[in-house]
Amino acid sequence: MVAALSSLSEFYHENHPKARQHLRAAIDERSAEINESMLEEAKRVMEDLDLVENEIARLVEACDKMCDTLTESKASTFDLLRETERLTVELDANQRRQELVGSFLGTYQLLPEEVTALQGDAISKEFFDALKHVQEIHANCKSLLRTHHQRAGLELMDVMAGYQEAAYEKLCRWVQDEFHAMSDDDTPEPHELLGHAALALQERPILFKYCAEEISNMCHNALFRRFINALTRGGPAGHPRPIEMHAHDPHRYVGDMLAWLHQALAAEKDIVSALFKDEKGGTRTNLPVSYEDTLDKIFEGVCRPFKVRVEQVLSSSIHMVDIFKLINLLGSYVEMLQGSIGDSSLLARTIGDCKGLAEKSFFDQLNGSMARIQRNPPLPPRDLSPPQVVKDVLQEMSEVLQTNSTVRSQGEEPAGLDRLVDGFLAPLADICERSASRLDDDNQSKLHRPSATYCVYLINCRSTMLSAVSGQPALRKAASAMSQTLDNLSRELVNREVGNLLQECDAYELVQRIKIHHEQSSDADVLRDPALAPDMLVEALDRLFGHFASQQQSLPEFQSVQSPSLRSDLVRKAASEIEDAYKLLHGSLNSSPSKAASVHTPAQFRTLLGGLV
Question: Can you state the subunit structure given in the record (predicted)?
């Protein structure tokens, strides 16, 4: 109702009686206008619908045409689709076959580039990759022999075997060429692929043995030529100079040859190591020819010339000290080589033989020299000092020992040093004995002991010999023996001089009788012994005291001892024994106090001796 009234107010503006009389007509008119407006709108809608209907009709017509066309196309392409599906299935099957063929070819066939690498002239990394592939294929063919494809497996193995044989022969020639080039060079540098080549050849023992023998022969000849050239021609343009130019200097001559051989050994070891190296960089041992035998074969040619030249040096008039220098030089190289290539190597054994020859020559010369002196020992000098020939021998020994100490490490005791020292000291001691026997023995005492001059002369000689070996730790044994001998001589001299002095004073027999009684612990027998009467004891004591009181110099026989310290020690020991004898005689006067009071006391006698000593 409200909506109708609101709509009425849109065209009914005035509300009065006249207007209300025409209200119905106005409403009808309004209704007619609305209907006309609706008809016009409906007409436009109908026109639009007609357009849509026309479009739909065209679409239906187009769809019908498309269906007809599709039906015709489907009928015409049915065979094509079926063929396409068949080809797709065949393509999948062919792809699977291709994968199988590719896998087979990769397992049992070489690539063209691999064949080229194997058959080409150059040796490269690709060659070793291809050779490894050939070996893998050859191993894979064995699996075919266990199936029904045995014929294919045998054929493939024959093909791969042909590739392998050709490749190994080519590799063997290449390795020989490389080693030949290196053998002519003093400082060879192995090819970077030489290790791979050696590893490959090691898989063929027979071929490897042949290759190793050929290489050792080449290196043997090349090393011999280089050694002879180094001896006679020297280096390029005369530098370094030929080794034989220093043949007049034995130490340098042999040292230069040893240095050259040591340098050559380092180079040849690098060459041979490249041939015997395993995958881990070590030396392979389970091969038909060994690393050591190959190295010995290479150095076989230079060992003989070296040994001959060392023999020539030793046969020449070479001084004994120079021979000992060669012994040390050869010994140091022997130790070096034994630690490097083993003591069973030919080079180490050859140098060891040369050392043995040098040692024999050294001791032959030493023994011959000593024998000549022993046959004609020198006369002792008037002052009883060591003769010049003894000093010369000790000087030679000192030079030899000095040479030995310069080539040995500190604290290391050289092997064979005792033999060396004995070779000098034992004959020298005999020479001194023979020389001392030529002294005048008219002064030999009644005690049948060696004369004082005999003892003093030997003491001087032994003291000089002891000085030559003292202060060297390696010669402690020789010094100890020499010191013991010197002590025995010193004791003999002291006993001899003290005995002679007591004889001169008519006290010797008395002292000996008293000692015998004391040893038997029979002091009472001393008093009852008529040979030990107090008057006799007093006379002996007075003569002893008077002897030293009248002397300007006590024990003059000891003054010929050359060593001041040893001379003082001898005098001190002799004085001590004389003092003990005086005390012994004085103590035996206890039975006669009046007699004891008439002689000088031991303290007074000690004071007298102290002033003279």
Answer: Component of the conserved oligomeric Golgi complex.
Of 176 and 250, which is predicted with more confidence? 250
CA distance 394 to 475: 14
What does 379-406 look like in DSSP terms, one character per residue? PPPTT-PPPHHHHHHHHHHHHHHHHHHH
DSSP state of 283: B
Residues 397 and 320: their CA atoms lie apart, in Å, by: 10
**How far apart, in whole angstroms, are the C-alpha atoms of residue 215 and residue 183?**
9
CA distance 138 to 129: 14
**Cα–Cα–Cα angle for 598, 601, 606, nearest 5°?**
145
Contact 292, 344 (CB under 8 A): yes
Q: Phi first, then psi: what are they for 283, rounded to 5°? A: -105, 125
Q: What is the Cα–Cα distance from 190 to 175, expressed in whole angstroms?
A: 10
Give me the residues paired with residue 277 across strands. Answer: 283
Q: How far is CA 53 from each of CA 38, 41, 67, 234, rounded to the nearest angstrom?
A: 22, 18, 21, 120
| List of long-range contacts for 121-127, beta carbons under 8 Å, 24+ apart | 123/170, 123/171, 123/174, 123/193, 123/197, 124/193, 125/193, 125/196, 127/167, 127/171
**What tens digit of pLDDT does each residue of 372-388 get?**
988 888 898 888 889 99
Mean pLDDT computed over 573-581: 87
